Amino acid sequence: MITGFGKNSFALLALFISGFVVLNGMIDDWGRLSGSFQNLIDFFHQSLWPPDWTVLEAQAYPVCTTPEPFSFTCSTAWIGMTETIKIAFVSTILGMIISLPIALLAARNLNSPRISYLARFILAAGRSLPSLIWAIFFVILIGLGPLSGIFAMTIYTVGYLGKLQYEAIEGMDKAPLDAANSMGLSKFEKSLGVVIPESANHLISQAIFMFEYNVRHGTVIGIVGAGGIGYYINLYLKFLQYDKVMAYLIIIFITVLLIDFLSIYARSFFNEEDNVNRPSWWGVILPDILRWQ
Amino acid sequence: MTENNENQNSEPIVSLSGLTIGFDSKNPLVQVPDLKIYSGEIVAITGASGVGKTTLLRTIAGLVSPITGTLEVCNSILPKLPPRGSVGYIPQRLGLVRHASVKHNVMMGARAGHTNPHAITPSAESLSRTKDAIERMGLTDKIDEPIRRLSGGQQRRVATARSLAQSPRLIMADEFLSELDEETLNSVLFEVTEYVRSTQAALIVVEHDVSRAKSMADRMLVIDDGRVNPFLSETTALEVNL
């Protein structure tokens, strides 16, 4: 007799088998995998490790005027990384300013379906292409540099953040809107006086998350010339200087990790309830298993 | 009664005619008798839980469309909504902006009643009405406190202050006196009834406590699904003059 558990197990097995069958159909020669691990070890030892930390030294030109302990601020790694963070910061702010009015129009609890679908169409268009493709488009349109990156990431932020925002607005408690509707408040008054304050915690938390997301993606758009650390990664990839690329990747990893922690900590200030235990600094940084409290 | 007869010579604030309410036309919730509510009147809606008291109130507030019948509120026949600021509604869950201050919440009511919808800043009248309503509800020391930090009873007082600051012609309140201690209940009830009598507004209140409903209202609308009157074949609202 097949029990409920048995049925679920059978469905999982069927899914696994169908996944394997599709994979097998795509791979013509499984033998190619045999030497891959050795290839990775060779590539790691011969090209990636040790990383070339000269990327943290000041560039020869332009001449660095910063005193010695801080001369790393003239390095390509520092310049590239700070530019990526700046692009992410500006894009997040611009994206939030543009997306919020569109999200208010897209929310079905505030507007008619016709207006809502039009606003949703605009937001969907913004996130239909990844920021990398938008970056290629803007590099062609306005040339190389961080401005293309800002435009690309702003458009993507509008699409992505706008979706999160209208979902937060639609999920808000119905009672304040009921009271506002029966009072006869205008849409503008409802938006500014009820919707934004009521969903402010969600909106701020989403904006912080979006900044973190943009920093991660900002490292990639430089590869197509839209500014940031990706530009240098692409440069050294072309010269096959993988040890320098490795150093950049480690710097990106540490920066993204730090911003991730900062983001978790900052978002903990925007909880729905006051009595939520706020994580301590070490609580955010340490994985669950290593916490003693 | 004399007061009631005087009222009935004036224009009604609410007129219900042939009203059937609910969410499914094949299975309506309540048959409502033809009813007019006049200025200066307090009408209580009572009945067992789940019979449709809140739905009736939400229908009069224009938040739920009736299945059949005509509904006129403040001289506007549905689907046309009543003029801005003429209806104050205190939902069962109060409908306050939890992350905003007491002042912000009360100001939303004052804006609806006393500020042009296109104005960015509230009018001087709105500001003074806000201050006055907060004072009358005894919340002056909590004026900048966010709603989420207030007790249930204090939140009910804020919701009442919001409606008073609006100076509406009709207040609709859904169990707005629950969770209040005896002293606060009496003072809130006094302020609201005083407002209704002095401004010749009307109050429709949903109240599950029948004795309290009797003590405050001029008329009662008892919604009965057969539990009170077993001869009723469908859920009906019965008008009771007090």
How would you portray this structure in words?
The complex is a heterodimer of chains A (293) and B (242). Chain A has 293 residues and is mainly alpha-helical. Chain A has a domain at 73-272: Orthogonal Bundle (MetI-like fold), CATH 1.10.3720.10. Chain A has 12 helices and no strands. Chain A has helices at 4-26, 36-48, 76-106, 113-128, 131-142, 146-170, 174-183, 187-198, 200-221, 230-238, 242-267, 281-285. In chain A, α4 (113-128) runs antiparallel to α6 (146-170), α5 crosses α9 and α10 runs antiparallel to α11. The model of chain A has no long low-confidence stretch (mean pLDDT 87). Chain B has 242 residues and is an alpha/beta fold. Chain B has a domain at 1-86 and 202-242: P-loop containing nucleotide triphosphate hydrolases (Rossmann fold). Chain B is 33% helix and 24% strand. Chain B has helices spanning 2-7, 53-60, 102-114, 124-136, 152-166, 182-199, 210-216, and strands spanning 12-21, 30-32, 35-38, 42-47, 68-73, 76-77, 87-90, 170-174, 202-206, 219-224, 236-241. Chain B has a 6-stranded mixed sheet, sandwiched between helices. In chain B, strands 1, 2, 3, 5 and 6 form a 5-stranded antiparallel sheet that branches. In chain B, α4 (124-136) runs antiparallel to α5 (152-166). The radius of gyration of chain B is 18 Å and the shape is globular. Chain B starts with a helix and ends with a strand. The model of chain B is unreliable at 1-5 (pLDDT under 50). The chains are: A mainly alpha (293), B alpha/beta (242). Chain A binds chain B through residues 173, 175-186, 188-189, 193-194, 197-198, 200-201, 273-274, and chain B through 58, 61-63, 81-100, 104, 107-109, 111-113, 117-118, 148-149, 159, 162, 166, 168, 172.
Concise overview:
Chain A is an all-alpha fold and 293 residues long.
Helix-strand layout with pairing:
The complex is a heterodimer of chains A (about 290) and B (about 240).
Chain A: H1 4-26, H2 36-48, H3 76-106, H4 113-128, H5 131-142, H6 146-170, H7 174-183, H8 187-198, H9 200-221, H10 230-238, H11 242-267, H12 281-285
Helix pairs in contact in A: 3-4, 3-6, 3-9, 4-6, 5-6, 5-9, 6-9, 9-11, 10-11
Chain B: H1 2-7, E1 12-21, E2 30-32, E3 35-38, E4 42-47, H2 53-60, E5 68-73, E6 76-77, E7 87-90, H3 102-114, H4 124-136, H5 152-166, E8 170-174, H6 182-199, E9 202-206, H7 210-216, E10 219-224, E11 236-241
Parallel strand pairs in B: 4-9, 4-10, 7-8, 8-9
Antiparallel strand pairs in B: 1-2, 1-3, 1-5, 5-6, 10-11
